[in-house]
Specification:
Layout: E1 4-17, H1 21-30, E2 33-47, E3 56-57, H2 63-71, E4 78-83, H3 92-96, E5 100-110, E6 113-121
Antiparallel strand pairs: 1-2, 1-4, 3-6, 5-6
Length: 122
């Protein structure tokens, strides 16, 4: 068993869909339509004690969203996360002193642009 266990995590955001133009503005007062957008879909991994890992991906890949779910800032839509045996969004206080995060930093240049990495220290 790892110190970080992630199993089938999905995070979707629901946002309000706006209609264009003046007629669309009036329509928006009466009708509400929502669209769902997946930030993270079905992610699973395990990190053992003493293991060094990198979390890399293009912009919009869900790196920061995943780090926020592992620290308890965001609640996953589905799936299970355990950090040090606790569910982060349910038991944030005990983990808060033991977890450190850093802002994403540029770590290299890929063919199509910059690659960013987020870090989480346990």
């Amino acid at each position: 068993m790892g110190i970080i266990e992630v199993s089938g995590i999905t995070k979707t955001y629901r946002h309000y869909r706006r209609f264009p133009g003046v007629v669309g503005s009036i329509r928006s007062l009466v009708t509400r339509q929502y669209a769902e957008e997946a930030a993270v879909q079905n992610i699973s991994f395990s990190i053992a004690e003493g293991e060094a890992v990198g979390y890399l991906g293009p912009n919009g890949a869900g790196k920061s969203t995943m780090i926020k779910m592992m620290t308890g800032i965001l609640v996953p839509t589905s799936g299970d996360i355990r950090v040090l045996g606790n569910v982060p969004h349910e038991e944030r206080r005990p983990d808060r002193r033991r977890l450190r995060t850093a802002q994403p930093t540029v770590v290299g240049l890929a063919r199509d642009g910059f690659v960013r990495a987020s870090s989480l220290c346990v």
